[in-house]
């Protein structure tokens, strides 16, 4: 089921909502998408007032304080979910029921069971789905994928991934929904490690088994301004995993939301039998590559600045090394969404792929309970 | 003279034309500019066919193969000049004559005399002008300016600036208009050092005297495909300047278009009596800052990732360190243009400021001829 | 038991033997040690000829092809063991029996039982012991320790350590004793992770429990030149650990000897409740430090170049940032050895501390067998 | 004239004196120099007491408070001058008169005339000379030289060198001999730029013409503790040069002693027709190299860690990337000195080569006086 245009209904206009709004426009000019085919049609937020203000700010034609109205609006082709995690399921199921395509922010759901329910509903309804794991859309990361696939670093034998930020490092930051299981699910695991897990699967192979460790470091926090007392933090500040991939490679994955100094500290190092590559999102437009070839005297890590020779860069700039930003990755994601919805291209990572991430996150919790390695269910290979 | 909207007429839709097109859209969502107030109205290019194709790709409503028609179109409020250097003057003078605001790419003109003529015409007509020295719009560079102005590094005593790229490093790249004086003016000097000069003035003080060196390294190049023979390169591959600023500080500025490995190698290091700051455009979202204070044991250059605490970053992202791209700087520039045209804010760097850059570039040529230091005419302080 | 001089008997004059020889001399001038108090007296190697050649090259007075003669020589005060791992035990026990102080390279032994036997013998005999975990002697790392101890980064909540090299990354490198359990013990674990474990304990707290993963990636290798067939690799190319420290902090430790591009890739990142510090041995003379204090606008990782303000640097150079090398760390270690032997200062890490490392490495193997977390015996806190 | 041993007489035991003392010992073990052939024989300093104390600290056999006695001692083969600049001439001329080889710290003299007098005396006497421009002895820099000589980066077209430190950045640091022309000569120029000039000539080609700028930024400083009033600084805090090399290449050289944050900030970037190399002394064990070859997609600056494949590294360590320190460069220098004196190898940079540096520094002053370009006398090519 495709349409000849993609009129967007955005639900939630906070941090990610704005990033999407910028990216829709960015994508039109960068990827030569006809304006009439990509329209920022309606924006829903928690109240009509907020929604109306944001619609004006972000350049949406209409607004509503009730996401159900957006979903059922006949002039909406795709529902874009930028609401908090715990709302993803209800909004997505309703959108699917209304026959709309769904573009959801990550993590897809609070747990694997919900994610499977969403996936199966979408597949049954035959709507297109896409989940916002934007880091894999970065031209630099796409290039890393290319290098791996064409064998430049040989067979991958090791993956180390870290996603550290410090947005909750200050223990005086107030209690919030992000710290409660019912609203956020797990903590750094769901919020940050979800990206890493998706990257690891994408770049290496399925994760077959894992052993993990989670810790709540700051166990209580003051209630938000105006309230007295403390809130008890329910989910992990720091998360660790050791994994084994389907191809035999080993890996370690770590995430923290209390790692002072790290702002978008998503990095990975992938070692193969012929070479190694290193990426760090804080310098998102470069990749370091070491290949064991040629004169040993001149071997070293090459710092490659992303440029027109690499996937999807040229849409933004014809000169190498001029640098892409966070929102540019989202523009690539939206180009994909457009290609999927308007030109029936395959969309990835779809709900099924994102469910696999949720399954792995659930396995982490299981491993922590058992203090031992656990096997991981394979779901994303099944259908598609 | 302001209008209540800014309908854009873009002349030239190559490298910079597309960057502008992306930025217009980007700015709407990032800076909450009402859509009806900022419209991509018409695009002119060398032929009607090219113009029409590009208008569709870049999301402009109408197109023309004749920039004079664009200039005289009643629904155009501002003429955006992204055509090659030698056309800037004619287009700008015509636009001014038609009472249009003018937003021109740098360098403003091929020489200081032309630039002065353009400046005086614009000031007489009372139209707004802005020149695309985008690097100063980068939130990181704005922050550098802030640090300097509030005295964090004390009195500036030294500026070193380098702008190196390798776009002509390969001596087999064909001859083109960029290598001819009548079309491009000087070489690396006009193309790259112009940015550096503008940054130096902006961040330090007026340049009062200078001594320079220019060199054509690859003196001939093959003619473009299909043609036989060689073309004789008329302008500099490498340019050097030693300068003295009005505040007594010393500086060195260098540019090269044949510096292998440098892709957007614009960097500067500014030393003051209390500290030093370092910037490198290839990692455009960070600034290194050294301040002589506190325990000597823990002194060092701080790598500051640009974030919401810094000027104009928050429009793009609420989280620090997520990284801005080249086109985001242009979006800030366009926000300024909008504020100038629709809300009558002062615009900077305007034609007068850009003329000062052209004057300095002319002084470079004079110094090279004399093999000695020369004094620099001060023009931009005069009116405004 | 101290002596008024330290006449050294070196056993093994390969890689580390030479590093020690350089460092003995270096230490004399750097730390103003009287020449007569520190003498390079005798060198033992596998054959008399080799020993004699090396003694001349490395500046030792006498030589022998039999380490037992060295040990029993009356003019030797300390036996310095730079022979392969499997010889450490026999040489050390014999030296202790002869009443000599012992300075051994790491890892102390092939397993914890051997290490305990050596420790107990040394303590009973009352000789001084020191083990060559040189990385903690680096002024930069000493400074890191200082920062942690005085609370600059608050309470440590996380340690991530990696020690990657590529000395066996090429799968065509020949089979050798390093790949056999009886001669080397475990692989990357014993050779590289031993340093990391020692650093982690030193900088954070005792390791109380762990879960680990080991893998032999290149399972067979060609026999050494001249021989036909392949050798079967018995020990790990890659080693992973998740740990919990006595203070509640979490950690991950990894080592690899097949990580292309990493030459001395020992790095760690330590996060506390107030800040973070980062170290990388490939740039051994700098430390990155982030502290959450002051204006958020100017927060960032500070790159601190080690200098005279930091421990033990000034002995080498009065100017900051001039850089120390690998052998300089050994000179600090030898200064400690001298202080211990001639001036009865406490020596650290001694055999008992090094035994704790061996215990942890044994726990790794146990965890891998059980595919689960294991508790770690605490030995080094017991006596001293 | 050679001797079969090299008994050293050290004059001056401050910063450099100690560095030399460490390096003599380091060199014995690193380069397998027989102990009896390299002896730290006598140390002279300003007073007998100081000399005696230092001799003990630094491991010299004898001491004297009068450098003339050292020079005339029959058991001294080479006089090593680590006294302040203004003493170099007298000590060197006396040593030469006594038939001793001379190893002098840089800059050779306060001006070119003195340097020529010293050179001619030494050549007439037939003694060996060496000047302590240690940065070119760094294995990393030797490797850079190799790369250039074998054409890896093509023909050199550009050199940019900077030598910035902050040892006088604090304007409250007291007045001293370093700030007076009669004792120090020029300022940052003599102290820091001298190294850069020597490197530039060594790595590129003779300097044929130059244009320069010098500035005293902090014009007065408090007198040293105990004294009242201020001292008037006579020499440059900041020095700039634009140069043209004999091969046609352009260059810029800068030095500052007031550049906050730079500790040993000697860096250079050399561009050729095929590639570029970058070096920074603050990370002295690595070189960045860009070569225009192979797939454009994987081009980038390679960070090469110095190792046994590179000149003179293996003497210190058999593993790559383990890092050399400042004093290790001096050990290479001393190996050269030993080879020259004991084995009659050519020594470089000798007094003649160092005189060329002094000539260029004098040309800088001339250019500043004239505010114009000047031609440079070529002296070092004449004899040898
Ligand atoms: N891909 C990425 O890199 C990132 C993804 N995210 C994901 O994006 C989602 C949103 O997170 P943020 O934008 O950071 O949160 P936010 O708190 O900034 O924004 C949430 C928005 O949802 C709105 N909202 C709340 N309840 C609503 C309701 N009932 N109906 C309609 N709107 C409602 C809020 O008013 C707000 O506009 C989360 O799932 C998060 O995990 C967040 C940050 C980065
Ligand atoms: N601010 C910055 O960082 C940069 C500024 N520039 C400046 O932008 C300007 C354009 O440069 P590029 O975009 O690199 O050149 P380009 O060659 O990529 O594009 C020039 C455009 O002008 C069009 N054009 C040529 N003749 C025309 C005519 N008679 N009428 C209408 N259109 C015509 C061409 O067809 C083409 O679309 C130059 O002045 C350059 O200095 C260029 C690159 C970066
Ligand atoms: N602290 C550190 O960073 C490092 C420590 N090491 C440790 O140093 C020790 C030696 O390793 P390498 O120097 O790399 O090995 P190597 O193979 O380079 O040297 C071993 C030396 O021992 C000699 N040897 C062998 N059998 C002997 C015998 N029966 N009697 C006397 N000498 C004998 C060999 O001839 C050779 O001279 C090992 O325990 C290793 O783990 C090694 C490298 C780095
Ligand atoms: N190659 C390099 O990288 C460096 C070279 N140098 C050079 O080394 C030389 C010495 O500089 P520093 O060691 O920094 O100075 P310093 O002030 O630390 O040491 C000078 C030494 O000379 C002694 N001295 C003074 N008058 C004397 C006399 N009449 N007789 C005997 N000794 C006397 C002083 O007591 C002191 O021990 C200078 O020429 C300087 O340019 C200095 C630093 C680095």
TrEMBL record, chains A, B, C, D:
Residues 142-277 form the GFO/IDH/MocA-like oxidoreductase domain. The keyword Nucleotide-binding does not apply. It comes from the Bacteria. SUPFAM superfamilies: Glyceraldehyde-3-phosphate dehydrogenase-like, C-terminal domain, NAD(P)-binding Rossmann-fold domains. It holds the Pfam family GFO_IDH_MocA. Keywords: Oxidoreductase. Signal peptide: none annotated. Residues 6-133 form the Gfo/Idh/MocA-like oxidoreductase N-terminal domain. This is Gfo/Idh/MocA family oxidoreductase. It comes from Marinomonas primoryensis. The lineage of its organism: Bacteria, Pseudomonadati, Pseudomonadota, Gammaproteobacteria, Oceanospirillales.
């Amino acid at each position: 089921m495709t349409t000849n245009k993609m009129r967007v209904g955005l639900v939630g206009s906070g941090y990610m909502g704005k990033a999407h709004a910028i990216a829709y426009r960015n994508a039109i000019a960068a990827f030569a998408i006809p304006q009439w085919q990509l329209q920022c049609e309606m924006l829903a937020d928690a109240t009509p007032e907020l929604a109306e203000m944001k619609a004006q700010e972000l350049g949406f034609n209409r607004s509503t304080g009730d996401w159900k109205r957006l979903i059922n609006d006949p002039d909406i082709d795709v529902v874009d979910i930028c609401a908090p995690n715990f709302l993803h399921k209800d909004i997505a199921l309703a959108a699917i029921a209304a026959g709309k395509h769904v573009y959801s922010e990550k993590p897809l759901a609070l747990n694997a069971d919900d994610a499977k329910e969403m996936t199966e509903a979408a597949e049954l309804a035959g709507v297109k789905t896409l989940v916002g794991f934007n880091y894999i859309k970065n031209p630099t990361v796409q290039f890393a994928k290319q290098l791996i696939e064409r064998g430049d670093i040989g067979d991958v034998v090791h993956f180390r991934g870290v996603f550290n930020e410090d947005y909750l490092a200050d223990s005086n930051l107030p209690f919030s929904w992000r710290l409660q299981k019912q609203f956020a699910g797990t903590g750094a695991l769901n919020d940050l490690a979800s990206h890493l897990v998706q990257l690891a699967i994408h770049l290496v192979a399925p994760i077959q088994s894992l052993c993990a460790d989670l810790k709540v470091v700051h166990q209580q926090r003051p209630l938000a301004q105006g309230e007295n007392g403390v809130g008890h933090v329910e989910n992990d500040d720091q998360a660790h995993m050791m994994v084994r991939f389907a191809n035999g490679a080993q890996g370690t994955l770590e995430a923290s939301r209390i790692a002072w100094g790290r702002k978008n500290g998503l990095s990975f190092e992938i070692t193969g039998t012929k070479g190694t590559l290193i990426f760090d999102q804080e310098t998102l437009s470069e990749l370091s590559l070491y290949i064991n070839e040629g004169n040993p005297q001149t071997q070293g890590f090459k710092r490659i600045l992303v440029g027109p020779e690499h996937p999807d860069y040229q849409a933004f700039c014809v000169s190498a090394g001029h640098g892409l930003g966070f929102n540019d990755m989202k523009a690539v994601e939206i180009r994909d969404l457009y290609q999927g919805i308007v030109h029936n291209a395959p969309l990835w990572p779809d709900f099924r792929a994102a469910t696999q991430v949720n399954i792995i996150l659930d396995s982490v919790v299981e491993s922590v309970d058992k203090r031992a390695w656990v096997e991981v269910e394979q779901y994303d290979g099944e259908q598609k």
